[in-house]
Write a structure and sequence with these properties.
The chain has two helices and eight strands, in the order ααββββββββ. It is mainly beta. The strands form two sheets. It has a four-stranded mixed beta sheet. It has a four-stranded mixed beta sheet with strand order 3-8-7-5, with no helix packed on it.
């Protein structure tokens, strides 16, 4: 009867390049951020893959909103440090603006 002995630690076996990503790593891989600062969206254009969740964070002292031009998504007014997230599943270009300050514009490109 054979006697099996594993010499590699278990952590080495499950953490190598073939290891499955953790749920947190998978979520981070499908996440992107836009910062609202100085009455601008940064970056002004963001390119993401389908399934990506984009989070806007208001770093200004003034409230802002995130509203897609055709009404596909919209946030409530975001105070300082508030966030709004939207998951993009369909390819396309999503132009958005701040409904409080309409000169503030941005775009998410999903491809």
């Amino acid at each position: 009867m054979p006697h099996w002995k594993f010499t590699a630690p278990l952590a080495a076996i499950v953490s190598g390049p073939e290891a499955l990503p953790s749920r947190e790593a998978a979520a981070a891989a499908n996440a992107a951020a836009i910062r609202i600062d100085n009455f601008n969206f940064a970056p002004p254009t963001l390119v993401v893959a389908p399934g990506t969740t984009v989070t806007w964070t208001n770093a200004d002292d003034s409230p802002h909103t995130v509203r897609e031009k055709d009404g596909k998504f919209k946030s409530a007014a975001l105070d300082t440090d508030d966030t709004f997230s939207q998951t993009f599943t369909a390819p396309g270009e999503y132009e958005y603006f701040c409904s409080i300050h309409p000169r503030m514009t941005g775009k998410v490109v999903v491809k």
